[in-house]
Write a structure and sequence with these properties.
The protein is α+β, with helices and mostly antiparallel strands. The protein has a single domain, classed as Jelly Rolls, CATH 2.60.120. The chain is built from two helices and 19 strands. It has a 17-stranded antiparallel beta sheet that branches. The chain has a two-stranded antiparallel sheet with strand order 11-19. The longest helix is centred in the C-terminal third of the chain and has 24 residues.
């Protein structure tokens, strides 16, 4: 009984450090991942959507807000609200995605929200959506998002009612998987159907003498 109690406490403690939701694990720390790539913004950009490129594969990464104009000075991604002012223009929502691709892991840092516990992170995958709420209002809020069984992340969204100052140094890692176009699915389906029809016809004629 004592061993079971100790095991239960250990598992609970681990859950507080790295809570897992379904097949997504959220760890409130900066944990480098295999094949990790920085996202570079090659020039100063401003708009509701701004884009960058991963530093190894040159794959397009898109940052979009439904409530804020975003801006970046260029270089390693550090995205702020616009206009840049003192006090800062706070960001209330931002979504990171890779048009035409998915990814396996991500690291984000929504810096200094207006209130603690006011960062809601939604990860959309091929297995559904997963949410995590956290956040300190004193500074960095690194969050490492990992998958365990080959899931593919479509997007990561950060929402905050109080707003946060910037999204600092977001990174992605793991294999970049192209999303098949609908025409590809149609072509694959047509090929499979033709194969089955030919196979069925062949079996039917094989019984004739």
């Amino acid at each position: 009984m004592r061993k079971l109690l100790i095991l239960g406490i250990s598992l609970s403690t681990l859950g507080l450090i790295a809570p897992a939701y379904g097949t997504i694990t959220f760890t409130e720390a900066q944990i480098p991942q295999p094949q990790e790539q920085n996202i570079l913004l090659t020039a100063p950009l401003t708009g509701m959507t701004i884009t960058g490129l991963t530093n190894h594969s040159d794959t397009l990464v898109q940052f979009t807000s439904t409530t804020n104009t975003l801006t970046s000075k260029g270089g390693q991604a550090d995205i702020d609200g616009f206009p840049v002012a003192h006090p800062p223009t706070l960001i209330h929502d931002i979504t990171m995605s890779m048009p035409g691709f998915t990814f396996n892991d991500a690291i984000i840092n929504p810096f200094k929200p207006g209130a603690s516990g006011d960062l809601i992170v939604t990860v959309r995958t091929n297995d559904g959506s997963f949410m995590h709420t956290y956040g300190s209002d004193t500074g960095n809020n690194f969050l490492t998002i990992t998958t365990a069984f080959g899931e593919h992340i479509d997007s990561v969204t950060v929402d905050s009612a109080s707003g946060f100052q910037s999204l600092g140094q977001p990174r992605i890692s793991g294999a970049l998987t192209p999303i098949p176009e609908p025409s590809t699915f149609l072509l694959m389906g047509s090929g499979l159907l033709a194969f089955l029809l030919i196979q069925k016809k062949g079996r039917r004629f094989s019984f004739k003498t």
